[in-house]
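Record format v2
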Amino acid sequence: MALNPMALDLSGKKYANVAYEEKERLFDEVKADDRWHHVLYGCYECGICVAACPSARFYDFSPRVIAQAAAREDVDLMYTLMNDSVWDCSQCFSCDRCPRQNSPGQIITIMREVAVKNGLKTAKEALEGYGRIIYKIMSTGSQVSPDMLQPNAFPDWGGHVKEISDNLDVWRKALPPETLHTTETGWKITDKTIVELYLIWHMTGVMKLIEGVDEGLFMILVDVMEERLEEAGYDDISFD
Amino acid sequence: MASENILVIGGGPTGMEAARGIASIGYKVTIVEKRDRLGGTPDASQYAALTPDMRSAEEAIGEMVDAITNSPNVTLMFNTEVIGSSGSVGNFKVKANQGGKEVTIDAGSVIICTGFTHFDPGRETQKYGYYEHDDVITLVDAEKMFKSGNFVRPSNGEKPKSVCFIQCVGSRDRQIGNEYCSKVCCGISSKQAIEVRQHVPDCKVFIFYIDMRMYGYWENEIYWPAQEKYKVNYVKGIATEIVKKGDRLLVKGEDTTMRRPLEIPMDIVILAVGMEPSEGTKKVADIFGVKKNKFGFIETIGGALNTVSTDVPGVFAAGAATGPADLEDCVSSAGAAAMKAIASLRTVAIPA
């Protein structure tokens, strides 16, 4: 193991500088989640989840170790995994084939949420690269949009990409559903929808989550959202 | 002159069930028991609760005792040991020592129900130190503590903070000579692990194992609850030694699936000792000239289809005298042996 610098440290001693009580507090938060008792039973340590896991082919990542540490209530190791392992999961839930009906993927979902809510440094680092995507989704309500189809971004798609992107507006208008006559968003998102989305993200605490991980992104989003909400008559909404 | 009496040797669960079966069909049966009472090992070793249903052993065994105690077809001979035998199927003359007095019992057929003995951990080849550390005990010792309702560290009478079980002590071990699995220890350890958590809820409980072997309903009735409800920590890896550290025990092993060495301080270590043939089983097998296997258990000759016939016509064996067995096995094979013992006797009794 020591030969591989990327290897996951299973000793449970990696974060010896973090107080046991703090690790325990985070694990208790994970266990307190309503979903917990439906995603973890006991672990046979059989590895069926690892065998099905695409991430395990590329990283020293093991859904088995996640379920195992959780079932054993190994507080130190759970902390290591919450920092060093949960972001290697692609959340495809191929692991949902466990004979005990554990769902390592969903255990990870909960662990990620706790990591984000508590602003763990590793969570911030892991999510850094997703700022642009989150900005697009949360400001427009859709992620992939036609104007992302740039010839230099997709050279392998062939010469006609340039032709299409030059006349994107026309091509889109040729599509029968009127809702697809857009270029900056995947489909036409009505004012009512976007305002509702902003309100949902505000009221469910999503904005607070983002503030904990990426303050810069949070501030840009707040600018966009506050203006639009004010226009819609929600001038008493505060993101502070 | 053929005898219509069937001799059952051993008054444990197997012997009692065989006798009950024979008597209920209307045949005469004599139980020879070397102790002064019925009940066998569950009674002698003071088992607390049965696996897997946690039923009181005393109550269950008591029920078996009651079923034969006043039966007109059952003769009970206590403080009695078989010392010799002559004759053959239909007409055995079995010599026994009854409290110092030699007696002869006529029997048409014989069922050997002499059971097992718990493996003596003094013979293990690792370094667990059963006779060295007060807090290293066996499943049998733990059972006594559960029965008394007082599960504490033998060394100081305090409640334990951490307890572990070490599986396969004396079983599945070529060095010791017991290559077989003792069948019941995984289930009993898991049952006891639950009991530890019930007695001392804040105590951490570990089970160090090679494979967990809980077939059939033992899986969902003991293993899963132990792990899921009682948070018993199952670690695949067998401890290599136990050393004293302060007033606690340091258990050294490997957490194999986690790829890491393991050293955990424990307050009580429970050795999951397996089964070996009892002295009585080996002795009685020799008296009747019945073949034993290389472990000393009585060898039955019918494979999976006949688990009670021996190589001597008219002599049958059942329960843990033939190999590791749980209570279900014992009671089932006792019934099969009772039927075959009666059948062999009838075959002989019908005049040619």
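The two ends of chain A are 46 Å apart (CA to CA).
The mean pLDDT of chain A is 92.
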